[in-house]
């Protein structure tokens, strides 16, 4: 399901089911909030580099991408300490703040496996129609939320402590081959 708030032109993507995310002991989470080249349940496909310009503008102003609970702008639950594009997608790493009530609740739900996804809140800058959805070429990212139902089922949080050497190697190789294919194209 795609959400749309006409007051601020914010789009959100959420829906789907999947396996529960992992979380390390100090409430640090990491994962891909968006993956390139994979159609979400609405048919939209984020293209490589779609976030770059907007992230540069945001960071140049000294601002950050917000961590929200279920896309609710009234419920920030933590801070994203790193938001970066790589050859796979948009990778995020951050901390859930247990000093706030909503953060404590989110942490308890994550640990119990009651929530299991990441979802983006954004404004489309440049896209083109493609099949049942759109090819998203440029996106202004506003927030990444912890959600029950991500629109892109592969968008999951994982703790650094749960990443295996094989996970790290697979991500590195995927990024390397994507970059090599782009150079050869």
UniProtKB/TrEMBL annotation:
GO terms for molecular function: peptidase activity. This is Prohead serine protease domain-containing protein. InterPro entries: Peptidase_S78_dom, Prohead_protease. SUPFAM superfamilies: Herpes virus serine proteinase, assemblin. Residues 26-163 form the Prohead serine protease domain. GO terms for biological process: proteolysis. Pfam families: Peptidase_S78. It comes from the Bacteria. The keyword Manganese does not apply. Transmembrane segments: none annotated. Keywords: Hydrolase, Protease, Viral release from host cell.
